[in-house]
Amino acid sequence: MKKNESTNKRKLVTEDIYSSIKEQILSYSLSPGEKVNIDQMARELNVSNIPIREALSRLASEGLVHIIPYKGVTVAEMSLKDLDELYEIRIELEGYAARKATQLIPEAEINWLDEEMKRCFLSIETCKGNLETVMKMNEQLHGTILKYAHNENLSNLIKLSLQRIERYLIYARRDLDIETVKREWHEHQAILSFLKERNNQMAEKAMRNHISNSHQRTRRFFL
Fold it and tell me: For position 146, what pLDDT does the model report?
């Protein structure tokens, strides 16, 4: 096998292992504080330790595992302090992103978001996929704002903080009631209304309000 082919194959294996371990962490198959047995994982997957260590190194950069030299790898603990700090970062970064993107999002994208928000509201009314509806709104609205903030470093910082918050959100949102989803929808709709008006100061304020409320909704599950 040629060197490039071997390298590409290892990258694919590492990517698969990374996705698998991350899914186990987010689904709580691997619990916070649990030690990751690299040798056992290598045997189960029939691979060497190298791609597993590479995958774990990537997860460590995302704050999902801790690598302790000469002691091993453990799944990162979850705490109120960590959650509060992550949201403190998120509210500043996403507030700024909303202010910056308001004047830059094309009209066609605004119209598309408007139609998608209407579809999301209908899915709430018919009780179809509460968690899925919230995730879809987040992906569409927050994703569009990040795209048109036109700042790759800002986008990467926000995505990194969101990756670390994700398992808190998944835990808190497993049993979302309809009223909570409706509140999420109205908060997203408020942001969209100011994007339509090209009012960057109010778009930022609405984004900060939404993230602050999301913080409190998530926080109560860990008290």
Answer: 96
